Amino acid sequence: MPRRSKRTLNSQLCLGENYHSISRPPHLLSNCVFFLYPVSVLGARMASNVKVYTLEEVAKHNNKKTCWIIVSGKVYDVTPFLEDHPGGDEVLISSTERDATDEFEFVGHSDSAMEMMKKYYIGDFDKPAVPVKQNRNPPPQQNQSPGFTIKMLQYLVPLLILGLAFGLQYFGKRG
Ligand code: HEM
């Protein structure tokens, strides 16, 4: 059997390149993710030929003649559905010019309503493609745990007793 060199073995085990990338500082990796994510989202959108609408474009369609709504990042032209919507046309018109996802979900639409929606889908809503960075600093704690109070008392009670003892001694001597 031919002897394989250590280098060949490393590359065969896919350790050669990955080893170096793993040892890079984590902020470099996360920078790459924040750069690659929007690029891949844009690429996917361009490749799939889906029309992407801005809020400004969607907001122009806010009446009975032309009514577009945004639900879960997708844009729907519900103009032909206005008269047939079981919830009425007014509720659809008043859901224009903004993201209507919350209202749509609050109603608790049935599966058949979701299926119906597909007919009116015309494109995606242009939300900012860059993912929001998560706040890594946790907010200051509002409620202190009971453990914290007990620890504080452990220090405070002996101090109070000491203070009391000194006070009594001082006033006792004066008396
Ligand atoms: C393409 C979008 C939509 C479709 C296809 C759709 C479809 C439907 C359907 C089929 C129903 C009958 C109940 C059910 O099967 O769930 C319904 C009811 C209703 N929808 Fe929509 N809907 C859409 C968007 C909206 C939006 C944006 C609102 C905003 C609040 C809304 C509000 C309502 C209300 C209030 C009812 C009546 C619920 C009830 O009486 O119990 N819908 N919709």
UniProtKB/TrEMBL annotation:
GO terms for molecular function: heme binding; metal ion binding. SMART domains: Cyt-b5. Keywords: Heme, Iron, Membrane, Metal-binding, Transmembrane, Transmembrane helix. The keyword Iron applies. Its main location: membrane. The chain crosses the membrane at residues 152-172. GO terms for cellular component: membrane. It holds the Pfam family Cyt-b5. PROSITE patterns: CYTOCHROME_B5_1, CYTOCHROME_B5_2. Residues 50-126 form the Cytochrome b5 heme-binding domain. It is found in: Membrane. Gene3D superfamilies: Cytochrome b5-like heme/steroid binding domain (3.10.120.10). Belongs to the cytochrome b5 family. This is Cytochrome b5 heme-binding domain-containing protein. It comes from Castanea mollissima.
